[in-house]
Amino acid sequence: MKGKLTLGAKILRLGGVKRVFKQIFGVKGERLLKASQCYLWTTAGPIAGLLFISTQRVAFCSERSIKLSSPNGELVRIHYKVSIPLRKIKRANQSGNVKNPSQKYMEIVTVDYFDFWFMGFLNYQKAFSYLQQAISEVKNTLQN
Asked: Which of 34, 51, 37, 36 is nearest to 133 (CA)?
């Protein structure tokens, strides 16, 4: 629960989810369609954060910072960020846990075959439909 309160405080402090998105990713000329709390699956396990779906990208920023070693050997804390341009998404897939159908997963596969797994959405179906809509609109724009 503490993580959700921290995120809520940050959103309030910056003046809303749209401002958080703009500040974290430095976006210009794109509109935020949906922001959802979720987890990004990594080789080190799930990372809690916010998934942003905009008119030009899918982006994720971790709730908490993680520790990494800098080139000079010092430990630094940074937020885990992912930014995927919609035009680079090959497909988005829905998946679920066979033993627990309420656990739903969203897989995003890029044109260079990297895959990103998101899970733990409060409203999975709504987030997935916004993602499909955003991908579809970009593909239609690119075809015209």
From this structure: 34
Q: What is the largest CA-CA distance in the chain?
A: 50
**Which contiguous run of DSSP H or E holds residue 17?**
helix 17-25
User: What one-character DSSP code corresponds to residue 122?
Assistant: S
At 63, list the tokens: 């709730």
Mean pLDDT by 10 residues, the chain (144 residues): 55 80 89 95 93 97 87 90 96 89 91 96 94 92 72
Q: How far apart are the C-alpha atoms of 118 and 108, rounded to whole Å?
A: 8
Cβ-contact 94, 105 below 8 angstroms:
yes
CA-to-CA distance for 144 and 142, rounded, in angstroms? 6
Q: Give the containing element (helix H, strand E) for 60.
A: strand 57-69
| CA–CA gap between residue 121 and residue 50 (Å, rounded) | 10
Q: Provide the 3-class DSSP secondary structure of residue 110.
A: strand
